[in-house]
Predict the structure.
Amino acid sequence: HRRDRGGGGVEGPALVTRGFEPLAAPDAQVLILGTIPSRQSLDAGEYYANPANAFWFIMEHLCGATPGLDYAGRVAMLRDARVALWDVLQAAERRGSLDSAIVAGTEAPNDIGALLGRSPLIHTVFLNGGKADALFRRRVLPELSRYPRTQLRLERLPSTSPANARLTKQAKLEAWSAVVQALAGRRLAERPAPDS
């Protein structure tokens, strides 16, 4: 069998894929959830390691960072911007790297509620693509009722995956500007009212 290097083909037997720990500081205000790491990301031990994935391109632009940061710099950039990063799934069987290759019924979700408890300032959850959104709503959202929260806004964004070829990187970047708007909106709301 050829080895799938993150390009996404469906080949060979389904393998159990296990995800990463979250990147989340206690002061995070938004949470971005992917589905589960690609094989290329797992091999590298890094979120979104496939250079064809637009995630880091988008986040560097949105955070005003120098393009091409190393992974440690990218993680620090997210932390400084108060952005948490994780995946909806802790584990699943999958053939290849595409979300569409996840074997239905094998999905084990991450404990998103516990993460929200550790990072109580998170007010918005962004879902990276349709599969992440569908799995979150089906496998995670019903469990969140166990965790008291005031309001949690959910927003599906276009997938940053190269498999989402119908949108250019620039179009994805424009859609993902919602992350900056969510952060800016919360910061404006937290400002004290001017003295009269």
Q: What stands out?
A: Confidence is low (pLDDT under 50) at residues 1-10, 188-196. The longest strand covers residues 89-94.
